[in-house]
Amino acid sequence: MLAFFFTFSCVEIPKGIQPVKNFKLEKYLGTWYEIARLDHRFERGLENISASYSRLGIDGVRVLNKGFDTKKRKWKTAEGKAYFIGSSNEGSLKVSFFGPFYGGYHIIDLDEAYSRVMICGPNKEYLWILSREPTLALSELEILTKKAKKLGFDVDNLIYVDHEPKTPK
């Protein structure tokens, strides 16, 4: 019973936050670059982070995260799967990198061109800003960080990701 509770309790969206509506998965698929995030152990020490999304069967999404480990001087990858929590027209998914355990992946801001996005997890300790390019205009970044702050995220602790080319030694 505890495993059932844990599996489903981590996919909720934080109180007071709404996922985007009229979401189009086909436009979202492809590669995104991490511009900023709140710190977490599973990304600590990584730079040049990207996430690639592709179809997984009829209703799933394959997730491939890649980042350069600055201490080990090598690339690190993680493959996962994601599924819509409700309607596929709403940007609210559950994602898993560890077997049956899922976490919330909620798209809370997305521009019309699908060129930049802000995502949160099941609580306000998880926040990512992604872009289709390795950089994002400062004006766009300011819009997103102001919105995140208004929603209650600790934007003062955002980590801005370096996307300089790296090669392992």
Description of the molecule:
The chain is mainly beta and 169 residues long. It has a single domain, classed as Calycin beta-barrel core domain (Lipocalin). It contains three helices and nine strands; from the N terminus they run ααββββββββαβ. The protein has helices at residues 2-9, 25-28, 138-150; strands at 30-37, 46-56, 60-69, 74-84, 92-98, 101-110, 116-120, 127-131, 159-160. An eight-stranded antiparallel barrel has the order 1-2-3-4-5-6-7-8. The longest helix is centred in the last third of the chain and has 13 residues, at 138-150.
Keywords:
169 residues; mainly beta; Lipocalin; 3 helices; 41% strand; globular
**How many structural domains?**
1
Give the strand content: 35-45%
Q: Provide the CATH superfamily.
A: Calycin beta-barrel core domain
CATH architecture call:
Beta Barrel
What does the overall shape look like? Answer: globular
Tell me roughly what share of residues is in helical segments. 10-25%
Distance between the termini: 47 Å
Total of helices: 3
| Structural class designation | mainly beta
Radius of gyration: 16 Å
Contiguous runs where pLDDT drops below 50 for at least 5 residues: 1-8
CATH class: Mainly Beta
Elements, N to C (H/E): HHEEEEEEEEHE
Q: How many strands appear in the DSSP assignment?
A: 9
